[in-house]
Amino acid sequence: MRKLIQPHIMCGIGDVAKYVLIPGDPRRVQIIASFLDESCKVADYRGFVTYTGSSDGIRISVCSTGIGCPSAAIAIEELARIGAETFIRVGTTGALQRSIDMGDIVIAAAAVRADGTSRIYAPIEFPAVADFNVVAALLQASKKSERKIHFGLVLSTDAFYGNAENLKRWSKFSVLSVEMESSVIFTIAALKKLKAGAILAVDGNPLLGVGKGEFEPSERTGELDDRVQEAIKEESRIAIEAIKILEDRLKTPAKAKLEE
Q: Cα–Cα distance between 137 and 215 in angstroms, integer?
């Protein structure tokens, strides 16, 4: 049987695990992969960087999706074609609530579909909801964290430099934060009967003018802030622990049958 390579991620069947962690930033892939027991680079093409390794015997891959829903959709589509089944976005997000601080972590229950790509897949009335089991595993894994964890809705938008008034509107609807990929990840996963979730490190608050923006070369702001860097490491650990929880739940019914 021939091994077919996907045109953008440059991976084929056998290169990636059924569990895939998906950050946006290609440079973050190696950071996340460093938390695996062992890992190696599989591919690096057009901003899609892929590593595969394991943790406690569970095979796990990490693949970057780039910025925004169009490239995230490409990654999910091609990863799913070669055996990926469960996706956890490990990303960053801007807070839309005053109670959420830099370096906090947001676990998404669902995403507001303020993007264009997901509308190609399904009408806007179709909700972009994270998989219940993935969310439950992330929440369980986060209980050991010393970080402040928030759980609720996020806003996915195509425009990083968007309208502040629009963000204020979603803030009033109790949306926790804004980012650029979760809506299409959740939508595609639901349509293809895959599983997806998202855990996000807070790198600022666009409504307060805190976080990502212009800065002096010597400054460490936004994602470069030490608090955010530590939150990215922590969310990576939580995501890997969540995969272990998911895998254990899959094995539990089998164990019960053997004991019978």
A: 37
